[in-house]
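thought: user wants a sequence for this fold. calling inverse folding tool.
action: design(structure=
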């Protein structure tokens, strides 16, 4: 790794010395202009923007709205496009000022000294053009009066509670943002809908602007409409999925009161089946004679089969490859069958004989007894090599999984076999037991979360036949995400993972249930599972584990991001986490590149508690944030 680092540094130095001695005109990184003067294209325009006596926030608003400002260093195809952009900018800047409470602005856009709106559509404008945008936003308006009603009564259930209209800024004396008016109406309507009024709407709106006083008086009249229950559901667009199955998955209990949250859950349930490309649910415009609200569901099915491939790369753990074959609708009831295969740990000095392997098959039958209850079967076989030993394992599971919104629970019976081999010892283990789990996933985006919580608890009571011992394996994990700033370009992320194996002595515990640490999914800067009890060939897993991670994420723009992170881990020889063991930590920096599937991740980490044989840095490449 030191040789690689030297070669990279040398190549960079040679490249710098090879640059010409002429001054640098301009330099950009990740689309951000860092220094130097930009050149105006010959078929472009030179732009000046002047905003009279306004806060910097108003200047930013105008710049963000103006296409002329955004494209000021771009080449133009013809003069028609310049006129079209300029005339559109009048409307764009006006709308942006209205949205920020400025209702008496004066906007001027001059092209070569002439107002853009006065040019004929076929005018021949010589390029490069001189453009001057001048904006006098006028005073910021406030709400003189802000009334809305009737409002829904206070909700009795927490899930039905909606923020009051005033929370949007719709209140006397507050800035009269156009968005505040619309948000206040939306909140009032949603409050009625949450209490069973599906046809609630904005019936009337009176707005009076007093330009002399820079005030706006607004009155919003809400029509709640009647209460209703869910009515018949019509489904269309399915081809292979059976109608009786869809009727079961989309039905509501007779007399079920209308609740928009039920529609949200219904759509999530159908998408979770993995059968449909799109699910569109349309509410009826009127109630039927029984006071019911009809629903129409339009579906578009995905192809039945899918094949996928993936790869990971780490300077410490080598190359990892994986592939899967997937059938998403075997018998018309959204049954899913998936086969997986993976290999990891491949590198220049580690061939197939010491690599890690995994094979698996998984079957899911959704909607048994309840729409949100799934039947699951799973089989896994693996071989994993660590510096001190090799473990092989096979496990069969059968059980059920319940998913409702962000909440999930699982109960699976299992039978498992594993063995351990090193230079002097061969041990084997045979186990039966239960895998019990509960998950709460409140993240806004699992691959690139900006806010929310993720909580997961797994408990596995088991019986091991070779040692005739009972034990419990437990693993708890929590992740949290906090966005910062108005545009939420900064995100603080944290993760804590705690594990314990109870009921076994260290010498008798099944090796595949013991805890190890290190690698891209735990503590970066160390090789995969190279931290435990002992070192080198004497390395073994422990009875307890603590992993902690913290990241500061910065989205530079919509494409690139930077991350600074720190990880820490501890493996203990007793079942009480933190009672024994030595901490190992790593720090590093990362680069993120946004793709349509999630951010492409490049992390460079350095372990702070390195041992003999550990590399200086670790490089990790993968898809999605590290957690």
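)
observation: tool returned 627 residues.
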């Amino acid at each position: 790794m030191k040789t690689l680092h030297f070669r990279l540094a040398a190549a960079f130095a040679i490249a710098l010395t090879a640059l010409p001695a002429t001054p640098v005109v301009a330099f950009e990184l990740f689309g951000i202009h860092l220094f130097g003067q930009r050149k105006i294209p010959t078929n472009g325009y030179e732009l000046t923007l002047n905003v009279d006596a306004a806060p910097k926030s108003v200047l930013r608003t105008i710049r963000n709205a103006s296409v002329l400002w955004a494209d000021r260093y771009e080449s133009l195809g013809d003069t028609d496009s310049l006129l079209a952009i300029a005339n559109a900018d009048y409307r764009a800047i006006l709308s942006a000022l209205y949205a920020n409470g400025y209702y008496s602005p004066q906007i001027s856009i001059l092209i070569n000294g002439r107002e853009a709106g006065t040019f004929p559509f076929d005018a021949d404008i010589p390029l490069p053009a001189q453009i001057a945008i001048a904006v006098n936003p006028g005073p910021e308006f406030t709400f003189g009066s802000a009334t809305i009603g009737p409002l829904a009564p206070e909700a009795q259930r927490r899930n039905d509670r909606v923020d009051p209209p005033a929370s949007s800024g719709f209140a006397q004396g507050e800035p009269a943002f156009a968005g505040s008016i619309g948000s206040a109406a939306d909140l009032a309507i949603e409050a009625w809908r949450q209490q069973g009024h599906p046809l609630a709407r904005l019936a009337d709106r009176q707005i009076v602007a007093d330009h002399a006083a820079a005030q706006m008086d607004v009155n919003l009249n809400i029509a709640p409409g009647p209460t209703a229950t869910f009515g018949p559901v019509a489904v269309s667009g399915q081809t292979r999925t059976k109608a009786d199955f869809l009727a079961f998955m989309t039905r509501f209990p007779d007399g079920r009161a209308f609740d928009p949250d039920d529609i949200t859950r219904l759509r999530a349930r159908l998408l979770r089946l993995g059968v449909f490309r799109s699910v569109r649910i349309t509410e009826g415009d009127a109630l039927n004679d029984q006071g019911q609200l009809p629903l129409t569901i339009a579906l578009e099915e995905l192809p039945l089969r899918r094949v996928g491939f993936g790869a990971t790369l780490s300077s410490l753990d080598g190359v990892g490859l994986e592939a899967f074959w997937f059938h998403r609708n075997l018998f018309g009831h959204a049954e899913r069958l998936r086969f997986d295969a993976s290999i990891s740990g491949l590198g220049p000095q580690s061939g197939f004989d010491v690599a890690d392997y995994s094979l698996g098959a998984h079957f899911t039958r959704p909607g048994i007894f309840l729409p949100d209850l799934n039947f699951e079967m799973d089989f896994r076989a693996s071989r994993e090599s660590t510096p001190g030993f090799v473990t092989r394992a096979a496990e069969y599971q059968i059980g059920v999984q319940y998913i409702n919104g962000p909440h999930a629970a699982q109960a699976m019976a299992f039978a498992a076999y594993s063995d351990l081999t090193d230079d002097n010892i061969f041990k084997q283990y045979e186990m039966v037991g239960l895998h019990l789990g509960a998950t709460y996933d409140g993240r806004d985006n699992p691959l690139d979360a900006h806010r929310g919580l993720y909580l997961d608890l797994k408990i596995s009571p088991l019986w091991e036949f070779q040692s005739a011992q009972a034990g419990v394996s437990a693993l708890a994990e929590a992740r949290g995400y906090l966005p910062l700033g108005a545009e939420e370009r900064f995100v603080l992320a944290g993760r804590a993972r705690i594990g314990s194996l109870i009921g076994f002595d260290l010498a008798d515990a099944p090796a595949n249930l013991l805890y190890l640490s290190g690698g891209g999914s735990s503590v970066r800067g160390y090789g995969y599972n190279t931290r435990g009890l002992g070192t080198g060939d004497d390395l073994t897993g422990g009875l307890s584990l603590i992993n902690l991670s913290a990241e500061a994420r910065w989205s530079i723009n919509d494409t690139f991001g930077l991350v600074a992170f720190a990880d820490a881990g501890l493996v203990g020889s007793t079942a009480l986490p933190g009672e024994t063991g030595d901490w190992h930590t790593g720090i590093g920096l990362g680069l993120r590149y946004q793709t349509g599937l999630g951010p492409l991740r490049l992390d460079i980490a350095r372990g702070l508690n390195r041992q003999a044989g550990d590399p200086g840095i670790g490089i990790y490449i993968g898809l999605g944030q590290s957690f």
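thought: summarizing for user.
answer: Here is the designed sequence. The first helix runs from residue 2 to 17.
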